[in-house]
Amino acid sequence: MSFPRFLFAAMVAAAVLAAGGAAAQAWPDKPIKFIVPAPAGSSLDVLARIIGDKLKDRLGQPIIVDDRPGAGGTLATDLVAKSAPDGYTMVISFNGPLSFGPHLYSHLPYDPQKDLAPVIITSSQPNVLAITAALPIHSVKELVAYAKANPGKLNYASVGNGSSSHLTMELLKSEAGIDIVHVPFNGSPPAVTATIQGETQMMFAVMPPLQAQIQAGKLRALAVTTAKRFALSPEIPTIAEAGYPGFEALAWNGVLVAAATPAAIVQRLNTEINAILRDPEVRSKLNAQGFELIGGTPEDFARLIKSDSDKWAPVIAKTGARID
Q1: What mean pLDDT is reported for the chain?
Q2: Percent over 90 (pLDDT), the chain
């Protein structure tokens, strides 16, 4: 390449970078849409609204929470993957659409590791195994024995096909050798209601949508899915303690934008949301609902998506779980 051509290429590159920097400096100058792949009242919706309320003050623009439940979270995640890469549309997605999806669907309409730019991990939680209080069961061992005595007669709810709620039960079924029928719902509110009313007898879900019903005696918490007892609910034993060593299945979530969003915008969002997650008021409010707040860098989130995808691929193959 001759010097003039090289100089021209360098000037073009510099102009592109300058334009991107200028766009990032002007951002945001209009409202930001925050897509939630779950219904109103779900744990993800609550988390998004608390973060969004603080983020509007830090960015000086409205944050419009838009609940888009359906298709196990892939519908909303795909919507953001195909959005303009300008930072004005973001999603709070989770391990279902990001790490499980590629192994559950024969054709996922987006590539989680190529079509989305991770911004930040927001929280990580164990799933809680909860059963309807009508069942005369008080431990995982009793539940397994009851299920073995009644094969195919029990139903379990999940918050959606391909969710951590779904796959965690499939993993337990595989480990324990039990036959329980899956009934998927669009989010935690209808799944919890079905379990309380006896349409389904049990479910795995994060603590926030279960907590009030457990306290009211309508549901009974049998176990959590952390490797060791969860610091925010130390009174609940683990699945591992019930005779399934190594059993661990965490539900995590985080914020993402479309791939090719300027790095400066991704970093600005990361900085602001990290600050929100460190806010004592936010921590107190969300810890009380069972959220363990995480934070970190975009790179941390990218590594989590890949490592969890690699971890669950053989598990999904072993359980035979498929969505299409």
Answers
A1: 91
A2: 75
Q: Does 179 lie in the same domain as 211?
A: yes
* pLDDT given for residue 47 in this prediction: 94
Number of domains the chain is built from: 2
Q: Which of 123-127, 235-239, 293-297 has the lowest mean pLDDT?
A: 123-127
User: What is the pLDDT confidence band of residue 3, given thresholds at 50, 70 and 90?
Assistant: very low
Residue 82's closest CA among 291, 204, 253, 261? 261
Containing structural domain, residue 120: 30-124+251-319
Examine the domain organization and report whether 150 and 235 are in the same domain.
yes
Answer yes or no: do 67 and 136 share one domain: no
Structure tokens at 254: 């985080």
Q: What is the CATH number of the domain that holds 169?
A: 3.40.190.10
Q: In this structure, is residue 275 part of a structural domain?
A: yes
**pLDDT surpasses 70 at 5:** no
Instruction: Specify the higher pLDDT residue, 11 or 235.
Output: 235
At 16 the pLDDT is: 45
Residue 216 shares a structural domain with residue 299: no
